[in-house]
From TrEMBL:
InterPro entries assigned to the protein according to its UniProt record, in alphabetical order: Nucleoid_associated_NdpA
Pfam families listed in its UniProt record: NA37
Domain of life where this protein originates: Bacteria
UniProt-recorded name of the protein: Nucleoid-associated protein
Source species taxonomy: Bacteria, Pseudomonadati, Bacteroidota, Cytophagia, Cytophagales
Biological source species: Algivirga pacifica
Length: 353
């Protein structure tokens, strides 16, 4: 559970971090920013910082040596949590320097790097402190209208940050210190190098293995199996593919606990398909080096997030779509040799207006 509705902003610093390989400068703030509580600026910046974060998957800091203390960001966060009053500006500068050192891809944009110390965050039922890291890379143009004198107005074009569009962010939660802290990441839909450096090069994060992680993992396996194995290349029609996806999602939506054998018997059913699924699951585990457990608690939020990835629409040529959310056995696929076209026959009992 994540509740950021009553978070208090105790400290905030701003640094300008350019792209190192493009010879852009690093400009470190020497003092904390001063924001009056309840001011428009305070409210705006808190919305900008916190609104993008939603309950879901969490991460830990990690290091390839398997000693989390080697991770530089973990060390900065640990020292800041131990003494937020005296160490805040220094450790925020250290974080900015580290971000600058890891901004080594030519496409990475420079920007404003905010570091904030937050209190009263509710994460998984605990009231905890957090360190917020936020980077704004994209500026937008807007027109500012001012009244210079009565009946006389002026218009100027300015650039600023859209508070509804946080580019990159994370919350380091003061919890599970020995494991590398809980870390929440602002999701990025892009998988490009310049988008991933924040998570991998700068923070060096690995997914926290909790119920969300295991649920999402297994749903990804189900989706991958249908896309790569249980598909038309192996003489499986689209309605049958959707049927397996829908039944998989239904299983996770209705159950509290996952059991692999139960899932295979109730959802997949056919022995040959079960064998193919088992082979794919083992191959998936090796390919992505991910642990796949036969039993775990199902996380409803992970199921909800996965729904958008489980397609239930047949797209036929242009502007023809059939939404399929059940009763896939009532759909037949065929081919008309005279028209040289494929077709679907849909059987039904009642028509709803």
């Amino acid at each position: 559970m994540l509740d950021l509705s009553n978070v208090k902003l105790k400290n905030i610093a701003l640094h300008k971090v350019g792209n190192k390989v493009q010879d852009e400068p690093l400009s470190l703030g020497e003092y904390e920013l001063q924001l009056e509580e309840d001011s428009a600026a305070h409210k705006g910046i808190m919305e900008y910082f916190l609104k993008p974060f939603k309950d879901g998957g969490k991460y830990h800091f990690w290091d390839e040596s398997e000693d989390v203390n080697v991770n530089e960001m973990y060390g900065f966060a640990k020292r800041l949590f131990a003494n937020p009053f005296d160490e805040f500006v220094l450790q925020s500068q250290n974080m900015a320097k580290h971000l600058y050192r890891t901004s080594t891809h030519p496409k990475i944009k420079g920007g404003d790097f905010f570091v904030a110390y937050l209190e009263d965050c509710i994460v998984d039922g605990d009231v905890v402190d957090a360190i917020g890291l936020f980077k704004s890379e994209n500026k937008e143009r807007f027109l500012k209208v001012s009244e210079k004198d009565q009946g006389m107005f002026g218009v100027a074009q300015e650039e600023g940050v859209n508070i509804k569009k946080l580019d990159k962010g994370c919350l380091i939660i003061k919890s599970e210190e020995e494991k590398g802290y809980k870390v929440l990441l602002k999701d990025s839909p892009r998988k490009s190098v310049e988008a991933q450096y924040w998570k991998e090069s700068f923070l060096a994060l690995t997914p926290r293995q909790d119920s969300f992680y295991h649920t999402q993992n297994y749903l990804n396996i189900c989706k991958g199996f249908v896309e790569e194995v249980f598909n038309e290349d192996h003489n499986v029609d689209k309605p049958d593919q959707m049927d397996l996806l829908n039944r998989s999602l239904k299983y996770f939506a209705e159950k509290d606990e996952f059991n692999a054998i139960e899932f295979e018997n109730e959802v997949i059913e056919e022995p040959k398909v079960i064998d193919a699924f088992t082979d794919y699951r083992e191959e998936y585990q090796e390919r992505f080096e991910l642990p796949v457990y036969p039993e775990f608690n199902i996380d409803p939020m992970a199921v909800k997030r996965s729904k958008k990835d489980f397609k239930s629409v047949l797209k036929l040529d242009q502007k023809i779509q059939i939404s399929v959310s059940g009763n896939e056995h009532n759909i037949e696929k065929g081919y008309d040799p005279e028209k040289e076209m494929n077709y679907y026959i849909v059987y039904y009992s009642e028509e709803e207006s």
